[in-house]
Amino acid sequence: MPPTENTPTTASASSHPAIEFKDVEKSFGPTTVLKDLNFTVAPGERVTLIGPSGSGKTTILRLVMTLEELTGGYIFVDGQPLTHEDRGGKRVELPKKRTREMTTRIGMVFQQFNLFPNMTVLENIIEAPVHVLGKSKVEATKEAKELLERVGLADKADAHPTRLSGGQQQRVAIARALAMNPEILLLDEVTSALDPELVGDVLGVLRDIAETTDITMLLVTHEMQFARDVSHRVMMFDGGQVLEEGPPDQIFNNPQHERTRKFLSSVL
Amino acid sequence: MWNWEFAAEALPILLRGFVNTLIATVVGTVIAAILGLILAVAIRGLPRWINWLVRLIVAFIRNTPLVVQLLFVYYAFSDIPGLVDVPALVIGFIVIGIHYSTYMSESYRSGIDAVPPGQFEAATALSLPPVRTFTAIVLPQALRATIPSLGNYAVAMFKDTPFLFAISVVELVTAAKEFGGSTFAYTEAFTLAGIIFLAASYPTSLLIQRLDRRLATY
Amino acid sequence: MNDNVTTLLNFLPQLWEGVQTTIILTVAGSIGAVIIALILGLTMTSPTAWLRIPARIVVEFFRGTSLLVQLFWLFYVLPLLGVDFDPMACGVAALALNYGAYSAEVVRSSIKTVAPGQWEAAIALSLSPTRRMVRVIFPQAWALMIPSLATLLIQLLKGTAVVSFITLSDLTDKTEQLRQSTGDTMFAYSISLLIYFALAWLLQEFMNFLERRATKALGRRRPNSRTDRREARRAARADAVRKDRLKSHVAAGEGTNHTKGPFPGQGGDL
């Protein structure tokens, strides 16, 4: 299934990119993972990051979600600084509260689902809408049920996450992320922890979201067919740098770099 | 409030008491370590109902106060007519040793359980006799996993030695109390006692933590 | 023997008073210890060094200086400094501080044991730090810490016996009176030890009940997915090695243990 349109929708009135990386640098102690990284993601664009493990692609998602500390440069979401801003040539960290307001616009789905085991499926989904966005419980519950319907788990609202299969848990996790009405959705190897027969359901849900919404998506995946189907752009990473990028057809059918070719032949 | 003269006067008295504290800790640890190992090994070989009985006794000793056990044994000994006076310190380290052997036997047991089954199988494949298998193969590996636990219990035991106060053994805290009682310099006596405890136990704990980390990485 | 029984029957009301004192000390001491443990334990997980380090110093201080030293300090030294607590307050305070310090380490390490993915998911949902701790992390850490807290609270119960040194007439003190009036050490102390054992058993049962409730709230793990099986195997292996080491750490005031056995305070089957 080809992407619904080849150019990302620019429905949003703002002229800012959804995500902008500016001179981003990330190091863990002495090891530098990302260096001088600059790229933008347009509103509504769906970008897949590929590359060998350790190439820094997951780190990029984690930086956008503020799960890792940004050690250099800036990240902008819809034109506004996420964690640091430039104040008269000085790099200043934003107040945590401000950063948290920004992250309400970003959702993330994890490889290991990370549902809260002490809450039911429904409680997992309404927790943040009620306590972060301040929605009423009734409204949040109504929306949560619609989302559960959408991911095919309408009957599991009162179940405990630990009683669900991996695929079901991951679909709940997707619903939980969507309940925040995020402008940006980060998908970090969301099918890697699943048994092969459960992958299809999860990808089906994601395809549906890609087709029917204009949420900006940044995804890391090993499902190359899926990446080809849903993304507008594929970025190949190696050693913390963008090796090459382009529309999926170009990257998958006609890669420019030997390393990309090698990598693709190893995963396809 | 704080009198350095009293402190200086108290210190040698406290340190003399501390000798008894150390004796009780060291001998208690040796008793607990040996008895604990015997318990751990014996339990494996015993028939089911004796096994259950031993476990019950172990749980009983572990879950009743050391102070009460000390008093019990102390009076029981003094009740026996014609018995030569057993020094309270001896009763002290025996009871403490037995009390902590119930904890240590558990350490040994889990250490033995943690030896991979492949080791037993390999020993069987080599036709090693059971005793040899146990002493040469299983035990050395089990001890490696057990030593930090034993160390932790030794430190816990050290901090329990003041309970010997109950049977009038003049260890550190009893010495402090006696000094305080005769001079009213309780502040100096008990503060110094606390400092001595802290100075001895904290570095030991750190040492065991380091040992634990070293032994944990095979 | 019949004389003993008669003496015991006459002594029962007094014995009951002693048991009550022991129970009050245990309950009040435990509540105090848990409150102190929560405050210090949570503070020790703080990212701010000037909160974390003082909490750590307090914990090491009260762990390192032996219960009896603390008890005598409160009882004999405080009056000299012009603060007069009654013996009961001294007993409860010493027990709460000493075992609270040990338990604080259990609280800290349990919180640190909660899977990093749980913290990350809470951040990804933009939950505030307080909400994150109260709703997501603590309920999971709570289930982890109960077995270790049980071990420590039983040690607290055993520790109450020292209050007889500061004039309080608890079960240990009454035991001594019973010994003197019967002249039978074996009889008096057997009864006393049995009562202590029963109290420890009750305490353990109560903690087991709390643990069952806490784990039930976390839902049961579905035992048959591939990840689960792999995880279960890995956990079983690592657990055997770690289990007891952790338990001894609890005695030394560190780590958590996740097992319980048929007898109170035992942790793990023998």
Automatic annotation (TrEMBL), chain A:
Annotated membrane topology: Peripheral membrane protein
Database matches in CDD domains: ABC_HisP_GlnQ (cd03262)
ABC transporter domain ranges (all copies): 19-264
Keyword DNA-binding attached: no
Transmembrane region(s): none
InterPro entries: AAA+_ATPase (IPR003593), ABC_ATPase_HisP-typ (IPR030679), ABC_transporter-like_ATP-bd (IPR003439), ABC_transporter-like_CS (IPR017871), Ectoine_EhuA (IPR014343), MetN_ABC_transporter-like (IPR050086), P-loop_NTPase (IPR027417)
One Pfam family in the UniProt entry: ABC_tran
Subcellular location: Cell membrane
UniProt entry tagged with the keyword Thylakoid: no
UniProt record similarity statement: Belongs to the ABC transporter superfamily.
Alphabetized UniProt keyword annotations: Amino-acid transport, ATP-binding, Cell membrane, Membrane, Nucleotide-binding, Transport
GO molecular function per UniProt: ATP binding
Protein name: L-cystine ABC transporter ATP-binding protein YecC
TrEMBL record, chain B:
Sequence ranges assigned to domain ABC transmembrane type-1 in this UniProt record: 18-208
Keywords for this protein: Amino-acid transport, Cell membrane, Membrane, Transmembrane, Transmembrane helix, Transport
PROSITE patterns linked: ABC_TM1
Gene3D superfamilies: MetI-like (1.10.3720.10)
Spans through the membrane: 20-41, 53-77, 83-100, 189-208
Pfam families: BPD_transp_1
UniProt membrane topology term: Multi-pass membrane protein
NCBIfam families per the UniProt record, alphabetical: ectoine_ehuD, HEQRo_perm_3TM
Protein name: Ectoine/hydroxyectoine ABC transporter permease subunit EhuD
Classification of source organism: Bacteria, Bacillati, Actinomycetota, Actinomycetes, Micrococcales
TrEMBL record, chain C:
Bias (Basic and acidic residues): 225-243
UniProt-annotated stretches for the region Disordered: 218-270
Chain segments annotated as transmembrane: 20-40, 61-79, 141-166, 186-203
Residue ranges of domain ABC transmembrane type-1 in the record: 19-204
Major subcellular location class: membrane
Cellular compartments annotated: Cell membrane
Topological type in the membrane: Multi-pass membrane protein
PROSITE patterns: ABC_TM1 (PS50928)
UniProt entry keywords in alphabetical sequence: Amino-acid transport, Cell membrane, Membrane, Transmembrane, Transmembrane helix, Transport
Pfam families named among the record's database cross-references: BPD_transp_1
InterPro entries in UniProt: AA_ABC_transptr_permease_3TM (IPR010065), ArtM/GltK/GlnP/TcyL/YhdX-like (IPR043429), Ectoine_EhuC (IPR014342), MetI-like (IPR000515), MetI-like_sf (IPR035906)
Gene3D superfamilies membership: MetI-like
Protein family membership: Belongs to the binding-protein-dependent transport system permease family.
Protein's name in the database: Ectoine/hydroxyectoine ABC transporter permease subunit EhuC
